[in-house]
C-alpha cells in the first residue's frame, strides 16, 4: 500500500498507475490540479485572508507575488508546475482513499473530487473521498489554514478521526490479502 502526503500525494498515484502489485493507495492533501494551479492557489490564499490588503489591490498584489515566487525556481519546483496529476489518477486501478483538508490553503480542496472523478471515470469503482472541515494542510485542526499560523496552533496532534479512518480503511483493504 502506498500513502502519499502533499506532493507525495501526486507521486503515489504515479507509482500506483504503473505498478499492479500496489494493493491500495491513500492520498493525504494531494494535488488534483496542475502544479501551476497549486502555485497560484498558494499565493492567492494569504492575500485573500489578509485584511490589510484592500480588495481593490488584491489582484495587483497577487500578480506581483506570483511573479516573484515563480522567478528562479529550482529544477524540481519548475518541473512540478508542469505536471497534471489527473493523467496518472486515471490509470490507478487499486482501491484508493483520498483525504483532503477542508481548511487547506496549500492544495485546493477541489483536488479530492478531481482525483476521485478521474479514477472513477476510468473504471476504478473502489474510491473513497473524505474531506475534514477545519483541518489545514498540516493535518491539524486549524480553521485558518495558512502555514504561517501553524507554529501558533495549540497542539501538534493530527486529527484523530482522520487517523482512525486511515487505519480502518487500510485494515479493511489489506485484510483479504492476509490469507494469501
First-residue to last-residue Cα separation: 16 Å
- Counted up, domains total 1
From the alpha carbons, calculate the radius of gyration and give it in angstroms. Answer: 17 Å
Biggest pleated sheet: 4 strands, parallel
Class computed from helices, strands and strand pairing: alpha/beta
The share of residues in extended strands comes to 5-15%
CATH architecture: 3-Layer(aba) Sandwich
Element-by-element helix/strand order: EHEHHHHEHEH
CATH class: Alpha Beta
Biggest sheet, strands in spatial order? 1-2-3-4
The tally of strands reads 4
Number of helices: 7
- What is the CATH topology classification name? Rossmann fold
Notes on the structure:
The protein has one domain (2-33, 84-178): Rossmann fold (3-Layer(aba) Sandwich), CATH 3.40.50. It contains seven helices and four strands; from the N terminus they run βαβααααβαβα. The protein has helices spanning 8-18, 35-48, 58-70, 75-81, 86-89, 111-121, 160-178, and strands at 2-5, 25-28, 96-101, 127-132. The radius of gyration is 17 Å and the shape is globular.
Amino acid at each position: 500500500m502506498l500513502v502519499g502526503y502533499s506532493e507525495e500525494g501526486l507521486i503515489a498515484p504515479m507509482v500506483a498507475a504503473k505498478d499492479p502489485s500496489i494493493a491500495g493507495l491513500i492520498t493525504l492533501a494531494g494535488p488534483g490540479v496542475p502544479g501551476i494551479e497549486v502555485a497560484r492557489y498558494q499565493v492567492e490564499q494569504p492575500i485573500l485572508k489578509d485584511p490589510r490588503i484592500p480588495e481593490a489591490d488584491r489582484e495587483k498584489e497577487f500578480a506581483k507575488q506570483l511573479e516573484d515566487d515563480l522567478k528562479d525556481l529550482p529544477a524540481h519546483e519548475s518541473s512540478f508546475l508542469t505536471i497534471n496529476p489527473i493523467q496518472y489518477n486515471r490509470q490507478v486501478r487499486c482501491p484508493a482513499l483520498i483525504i483532503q483538508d477542508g481548511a487547506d490553503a496549500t492544495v485546493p480542496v477541489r483536488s479530492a473530487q478531481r482525483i476521485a472523478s478521474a479514477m472513477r471515470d476510468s473504471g476504478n469503482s473502489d474510491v473513497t473521498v473524505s474531506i475534514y472541515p477545519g483541518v489545514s494542510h498540516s493535518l491539524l485542526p486549524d480553521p485558518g489554514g495558512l502555514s504561517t499560523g501553524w507554529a501558533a496552533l495549540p497542539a501538534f496532534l493530527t486529527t484523530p478521526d482522520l487517523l482512525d479512518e486511515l487505519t480502518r480503511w487500510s485494515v479493511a483493504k489489506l485484510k483479504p490479502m492476509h490469507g494469501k
